[in-house]
Design goal:
The structure holds 2 protein chains of 2 kinds. Chain A has 12 helices and 15 strands. Chain A has helices at about 1-30, 50-70, 95-105, 115-130, 160-175, 190-205, 225-235, 245-260, 275-280, 300-315, 320-340, 345-350; strands at about 35-45, 80-90, 110-115, 135, 150-155, 185-190, 210-215, 240, 265-270, 285-290, 355-360, 360-365, 370, 385-390, 395-400. In chain A, the strands form 3 sheets. A 7-stranded mixed sheet of chain A has the order 7-6-8-9-10-14-15, sandwiched between helices. In chain A, α5 packs across α6 (about 190-205). The longest helix of chain A has 28 residues, at about 1-30. Chain B has a single domain, classed as ABC transporter involved in vitamin B12 uptake, BtuC, CATH 1.10.3470. Chain B contains 11 helices and 2 strands; from the N terminus they run ααααββααααααα. Chain B has helices spanning about 1-30, 40-55, 60-90, 90-115, 135-160, 160-170, 175-180, 185-205, 215-230, 235-255, 260-275; strands at about 125-130, 135. In chain B, α2 packs antiparallel against α3, α2 packs across α9 and α9 crosses α10 (about 235-255). The longest helix of chain B has 30 residues, at about 60-90. The chains are: A alpha/beta, B mainly alpha. The interface of A and B includes residues 49, 218, 224 and 246 of A.
Chain lengths: ~400, ~280
């Protein structure tokens, strides 16, 4: 009996030693010039409501991977090629955990993606434990970087940066349009995104403009008539909607064709301007919305024009805000891999905190000139552009680089 | 002025709820099936209008006739599916078929049209300024269509032989069968008619609706509310219930915090369940 126990104990001990050895060799294999491919996991909402952001993000990431590989791959890893594997979270928050775990199990060196903050919050619990970096391309919740996770990086604006941009634009618009006493009506989505956006927006406002009314509406709202009526009845000079793309389109149409609010500024922050123009036509005019850079704009680089054309040629669609976030995320990882010379999660994470993307080398934005992360993992300066839809065209009006763009009063 | 706006908007929305609920009450009352795909067929009708405009430049009203023919075929196939496959397994089977159809229709719409919101562009019947806002001609047309359909079904059920068969099956399928009524055929017809009505509702409301693939789910929840308040199998009750729920939703959205917008109709439903009579609001 005792011999049997001894034998069993020996077997267990040997097995344990072998498994430790195996772990060690796995880690060692990530260092040096023998790596032929580096697996990047694209944990993303490729189906479901958030796929309107997720698919362009994934396309942008694919474009960057293709270009980096065509340029010789990761040179410090002997020309290792990047491989992007997609894991669909299907706009389902719970899938954030399961797909992140699948990505870790697949041996991903890093994860990019995520359009719903709650999905990113859930998924990054897994990657933080595994010690591999996650570059968040669409989750804007400040909570994402406020948990002290060193492996999480937001390659997009967080709520505070975004709403500061929105408030700055509203302030700029009110000033340019000569509104003596600007007042605000703020309908917002009754979701964690909408509520955090409201807090960030009110913080940016910090009592400067009087809020005539602020009210939420359910996430499941399909008929926005009562929301439009209520916002119009507030008697504010500016209406700011903190909601989703469908909310902005529905409210823009109701304001332009049914309720005709007596306002000067209408900001639909979640609305995609391209969709608004294609679906609403002239009813979209006068709306302020977040926008992606476009060729021919002031300050846009030649490199951007080239990337824009490459994206259009490959995906037969114009890139969106999230396309460039996905694109930048892959470039961040590539730059970090070059710097670290390793796919080890710890080294890659450390390198990500140090790399800077410059214009023409991963940073396609005309503003800011460079992209890099703070110690908390947020971008030092977020590349937010606010545009006004004028004559069915997207006219950037913020950041200050666009300060001289003529801003028109609503209704246009 | 604001209250009047909300009431009028509520009545217009309520007419749509009545139309959607009218079909659902048939499938529940006569077909005895909780068709979870009912709202998805409303979404399919909405996208039929989008398809007609995208492909042929046709407005939703011109697309209504071919749409009814197309959805009648789909509806007959679906009714057959419920009858042949669903009933063999029992109520669970019917629920699963409904859920599967809901997922398939949502998935197809998403695959074909993505999740970007869509609208019917450049089509208007003008508008009438009332209480400081504009009521679209298309909204008035949708309300008129609802009243016409409700009246038509009411007459059909009350005055035709087939309508009597529907009522008999709704009352007691076993007794109806013993009296020589072909119960499965009647139930199939009710299911098919409800699907056609759902799709027709989608086509008719498309000119003033912001369309996205998951929109049907909200219509399904509303349809349940309408049927509970209006009474199962009662299309006239569904219309009245739809109008009532529309007004309550609108007033709640205009005056109360957002959670009350969701809760108000649910509280109304619970109240009706507690005190209701057999035929709902028209009892």
């Amino acid at each position: 009996m005792s011999k049997n126990r001894l034998f069993a104990g020996s077997v267990l001990a040997v097995a344990a030693l072998l498994s430790v050895g195996a772990c060690g060799s796995s880690a060692n294999s990530s260092v040096g010039a023998q790596v032929k491919t580096v697996l990047l996991a694209n944990v993303e909402d490729l189906t479901g409501p958030a796929s309107v952001y997720g698919i362009p993000e994934s396309n942008g990431a694919q474009l960057a991977v293709r270009q980096i590989n065509a340029a010789g791959g990761i040179k410090s890893l002997g020309g290792a090629k990047l491989v992007l594997k997609r894991f669909d979270t299907a706009s389902n928050v719970d899938a954030g955990v399961t797909q992140a775990q699948a990505a870790v199990n697949a041996g991903a060196a890093a994860v990019i993606g995520g359009e719903i903050s709650d999905t990113v919050l859930a998924g990054t619990n897994v990657t933080q434990r595994a010690g591999i970096p996650w570059l968040d391309t669409g989750g804007t919740a400040s909570k994402i970087h406020q948990r002290g996770y060193n492996t999480v990086f937001q390659v997009t604006y967080d709520s505070a940066q975004f709403e500061t941009a929105v408030f700055d634009t509203v302030e700029q618009a009110s000033r340019q349009l000569g509104i003596a006493t600007p007042t605000l009506a703020i309908p917002y989505s009754q979701s964690s995104y909408g509520q955090e956006s409201l807090q960030a927006f009110l913080q940016a406002n910090s009592g400067k403009y009087k809020v005539r009314c602020e009210f939420s509406y359910p996430l499941t709202t399909t008929d926005f008539s009562s929301v439009a009526a209520r916002a119009a009845a507030c008697g504010a000079t500016d209406i700011v909607n903190l909601g989703y793309p469908t909310d902005g389109v529905a409210l823009s149409r109701l304001f332009a064709t049914q309720f005709h609010p007596r306002i000067k500024v209408w900001a639909a922050t979640g609305m995609d301007p391209g969709t608004a123009i294609s679906q609403l036509g002239s009813a979209a005019n006068g709306a302020l919305t977040i926008a992606a850079p476009a060729p021919g704009e002031k300050g846009v680089t030649a490199a951007f024009d080239k990337e824009f054309a490459a994206y259009q040629a490959r995906f037969h669609a114009a890139p969106t805000v999230t396309s460039w976030a996905g694109y930048a995320a892959v470039h961040f990882i590539a730059a970090a891999l070059e710097r670290a010379g390793s796919t080890s999660g710890a080294k890659l994470t450390a390198a990500l905190h140090r790399v800077t993307l410059t214009q023409g080398d991963g940073d396609v934005y005309s503003y800011p000139g460079t992209l890099s992360f703070t110690a908390q993992g947020t971008l030092r300066t977020a590349p937010a552009i606010v545009a006004e839809i004028q004559n069915d065209k997207i006219v950037p009006v913020w950041p200050p680089a666009y300060d001289k763009s003529p801003l028109a009063a609503y209704p246009f | 002025m604001f209250a009047e706006q909300l009431v009028l908007e509520g009545l217009l929305s309520g007419a749509v709820y009545g139309l959607v609920g009218g079909g659902f009450t048939l499938v529940l009352g006569v077909g005895r099936i909780a068709n979870f795909a009912h709202g998805a067929f409303v979404a399919a009708g909405l996208y039929w209008a989008v398809f007609a405009q995208d492909q042929f430049g046709v407005n939703p009203y011109l697309a209504l006739g071919p749409g009814l023919a197309f959805f009648a075929l789909i509806a007959l196939g679906t009714a057959e599916l419920f009858e042949r496959r669903g009933r063999q397994v029992g109520e669970i089977g019917e629920l699963l078929i409904g859920l599967a159809l809901l997922l398939v229709i949502n998935g197809l719409l998403e695959a074909l049209y993505t999740d970007s919101p869509r609208t019917i562009r450049d089509f208007t019947l003008g508008g009438v300024p009332v209480f400081g806002f504009t009521v679209y001609g298309t909204q008035i047309a949708a309300a008129a269509f609802t009243f016409a359909v409700a009246a038509g079904i009411y007459l059909l059920i009350r005055a035709s032989r087939w309508g009597r068969a529907l009522r008999a099956v709704a009352e007691d399928p076993l007794a109806a069968g013993l009296h020589g009524i072909r119960v499965p055929a009647t139930q199939r017809a009710a299911v098919a008619l409800s699907i056609v009505l759902a799709a027709a509702a989608g086509i008719v409301i498309s000119p003033f609706t912001t369309i996205y693939p998951q929109i049907g789910t909200t219509f399904l929840i509303t349809a349940f509310a309408v049927v509970i308040v209006g009474g199962i199998g009662n299309t006239f009750g569904a219309l009245l219930a739809g109008l009532g729920i529309g007004v309550i939703n609108s007033l709640a959205g205009g005056y109360l915090a957002s959670y009350w917008t969701t809760l108000a109709p649910l509280i109304l439903i619970l109240a009706f369940i507690l005190v209701r009579r057999e035929r709902g609001v028209t009892a």
